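Morning!

As promised:
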Amino acid sequence: MSEYTVVNSRAPRVDAPDKAAGRALYIDDIRLPGMLYGAILHSSLAHARILNIDTSRAKELAGVKSVVTSQDAGLVKYGVSPARYDETVFCHDKVRYIGDEVAAVAAVDLETAMEALSLIKVDYEELPAVLSIEEALAEGAPLVHEEYRGNIGAQVHQEFGDVEAALAQCDVVRTDTFRSKRQDGGFIEPQGCIAEYDANGNLTLRSSTQSPHYVQRTIAMVLGIPIGKLRVIKPYVGGGFGPKVAANAMEMAACLMSMKTGKPVKMNFTREEVFLYGRARHQFVHTLTTGVNKDGTLVALKNECYLEGGAYSSFGIATIYYAGSLLGGPYRLQNMKYDAYRVYTNKPACGAQRGHGGVIARAAWEQQLDRIAEEIGMDPVELRLKNMMEAGDVSCNDLKMNSLGMRECIEAVRDGSGWKEKKGRLPKGKGIGMACGFFVSGAGFPIYRSDTYHATVTIHVSEDGGTVHVYTASAEIGQGSDTAFAMIAAETIGIPLDSVKISSGDTEFGIDLGAYSSRQTLMTGHAVKEAAVDVRRQILGVLARELKVDISELDIKDGLIVFKHGRVDFSHVRTRYSKEHRGWQGLPKGREPLTFQEAARIAYLARGTIVGRGKYKPAELGGTHKGAAVGTSPAYGCSAQVVEVNVDMETGKITVEKMTDAHDCGFAINRTSVEGQMQGSLSMGLGEALQEEVKFDQKGRILNPNLAEYKIATSLDMPNVEPIIVESHEPYGPFGAKEVGEGAIMPTIPAILNAVYDATGIRFQELPLTPERVFMALRAKQQAKGKNPADES
Amino acid sequence: MKTLINIKVNGRAWDLAVEPNRTLLDVLRHDLELTGTKRGCDLGECGSCTVILNGKPVNSCLVLAIQANGAEVLTIEGLAGPSGLHPLQRAFVEKGAIQCGFCTPGMILSASSLLQKNPKPGEEEIRTALSGNLCRCTGYQKIVEAIQSVGERGQG
């Protein structure tokens, strides 16, 4: 039996009934009176100088209310990391990718806005473009940004321990290069927004964002609006996974045109524009050199990485650091060197996507560890058990694991999958593979340098008692944060879940950095808990005085007041409450237990509206090296997975048949939600491993900007996952909770790669494993065999 | 040039004047303000605009409003009865089949169509019936389980 009544349960999500009924409002479901419709003119060339923009004919079109370019928006630079503010709302000197924003129009309807776009004449001088890492780094390559020589927008060089010396001592040293492809977020709801400028000069932006706070700050800075006059509201959001964190040019164009016209302006991305905007997973090329001793002890890792970043930095500065800092762990590796280069190209910008920066590094390394295990004749599970970190360990790059259920995860998937019976014993074409991973529970630092709280929360108690209302600026984007926070508030105060209401996603409700880096449960959860403790303390404080007992005598459970040491006469409190509710039905009466409702009312009468306040920012975190801010976190989730595949040896088609996943989330606030994050993460990882790739032609045009040709996993691609929740009780998490939203994707790709090797004997060093790629590899292997029959093993 | 059409949506008859290039999705979302039907791609790929047209699930972004003249349409708003949510909707809530919720209306309608034809479908039949409805959040498993639970109870 759980000691808890609300948390750790499978309570249905608080937003699910509205979503099931079709009543939940997303951005495109909202219409305001007199609303205009906006659209963006995108660059049609990958790289060109802008010679002239003529908007006169667009402005003359009947129904057009506003046409804006860089002349209206100004040239304030913005981005994600202040060190790399490299975007302006609209292009002014040149365009850097097909899709770059050149102008925007607002009109009485979308058709008129689209027609107006076709009337804007832009004179370009086309420039040679760079469309790959290799082209961008070539001697004398055209520069995407003149100020970044060699098209290197960022580079990182870190070393912990002495890698060269350590490698020289190793029994086995392997070097492998692994190449991934650019991803799309693949969320089902395209981005949209509505800007509304009122007669008092207040601007309200409703947007399908993952971070109202970052959007508010960025737009206030770019458009020069006092932060108190810009309110950002997030309605229900149809998935984000990273690309919806940062402020975008569409939001700024809508704000600008609403300010110019005094009318609300609505703008939406088409599915093609979702792809053009991008900001999802980079392409990574990792060259990893790992050294081990014969007994399997991991000794050193050298990680060289190139990231294809597209035309702007977006989240890329964090990405390049994560692609280094999320290796090493969850193993006790003492020597690690990281050299990385983020390269500008004339393609849409890349940014953050689930498992930010770490997913491909993890795929490359966990496959390499499998190769090493084979070389030294060790079971891959044993190799990982031998090297894994435990609670209290600190990684070589200063990441401290205050809790870490790595062993429990590995053993759970080993035993849950039947690993020992299956590994090496499956028929040809069938294979089993495993991998591990870990991830931050929230970035330790905000994306801009600041001492800001990461979350502030208030809980208002209704003056009539009985219900409480949690206000938070956090972002429910589908992950279930609203439900988790309502559960934390209910458990902490001691009331049923249906006595809690929650309003979130509004900058008027406080500060919250938003839904990214798997931070909401731990960070906002802390602030909710603190606010709930405050509510409890205020109410019980008044009650204790009224009843002339010590506050320590009182508790609240299931909405009832509990007297720890025998009954106390509370009849005067009950009488007072009853008198205030003459004529009401269902009031507590007689000797029935005293209710939270009555106590809350008494507290209100004594103190006015009861408001509990909570806040959170991480305590001091480890690491003093450059870049230590990316990767440090108050806590780390970890996971292990075993995947079983079937490879059709004739066609190369891979079917993932079974996935066993164990994740240490510290403590499951909501068990169903934790499983949902695990299953969803695996589904994204599966798509990325087998199917997903944003493809470009020679001109830099996206060849597959749609969900038919960019193939995310369907219900037929995903097998059932056996989710195993491991709870290591994180000392720095609310109720012991830490992340699950992103860490769960970490082992998926390498577990698939390792299973495919087990099935085919082929190591794939390039994603995705499409039937074509697998077929060609099978054929090559067959031909090699034919030529050299001795190579039968 | 607008054309007059007559359609029955969730049991209620409408006379509407529509442009020939307007989709059923546009008419549902804009003219009738039934925004439970979602627009995810406008290309018939994601399935979030699924509605039931004359008993069959369709991508309403691929159906012209004038093609729906004389037809009966069921949207997510019409699925719940006077006593509350439809058993499928309740199962989606209880089984954790909903995360961001954007694919949910289309998923539920595809599932309801399946259960009409096949009240006790197996897992493969459910997965096949949902294969035109994309979901990026859930990995589909809890959706499949929710539909199975309704099938087993014979409530579809």
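The longest helix of chain B spans residues 104-117.

Hope this helps with the figure draft.
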